């Protein structure tokens, strides 16, 4: 087996490993949490999150939900500082990406008017986060 074939096999094995254990998704979720919470001690914060994950797995619970209702209200409030009670589709999409949600609903309620309500934003965010938390079940 030549070096190129070995590298290709090693790359394929690595990709399969990462996919099987949902490592990329886990890292995306952890990075999103760091950006959102901006802890003073990021390493300790990450260790704490992994310990919570381990604890929830032992108790048979699903993975932790990274953001709750108040967090999502805060995100929406940042995007809607004048309290218009809606954000643009571009803001909605960027916020969900920042939260680590990759499979975004491209046609949420209000997209036609380019006005995404807080309710729609939170619904879409929670559904996306629940899909992301399924990542933890594979660890």
From TrEMBL:
InterPro entries: DD_EFCAB10, EF_EFCAB10_C, EFC10. This is EFCAB10 C-terminal EF-hand domain-containing protein. Residues 70-130 form the EFCAB10 C-terminal EF-hand domain.
């Amino acid at each position: 087996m030549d070096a190129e074939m070995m590298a290709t096999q090693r790359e394929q094995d690595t990709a399969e490993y990462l996919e099987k254990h949902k490592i990329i998704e886990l890292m995306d979720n952890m990075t999103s949490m760091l950006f959102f919470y901006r802890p003073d001690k990021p390493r300790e914060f990450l260790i704490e999150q992994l310990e919570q994950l381990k604890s929830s797995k032992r108790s048979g619970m699903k993975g932790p939900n990274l953001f709750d209702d108040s967090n999502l209200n805060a995100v929406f409030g940042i995007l809607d500082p004048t309290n218009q009670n809606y954000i643009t589709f571009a803001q909605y999409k960027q916020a969900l990406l920042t939260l680590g949600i990759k499979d975004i609903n491209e046609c949420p309620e209000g997209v036609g008017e380019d006005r995404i309500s807080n309710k729609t934003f939170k619904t879409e965010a929670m559904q996306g986060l629940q899909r992301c938390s399924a990542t933890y079940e594979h660890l």
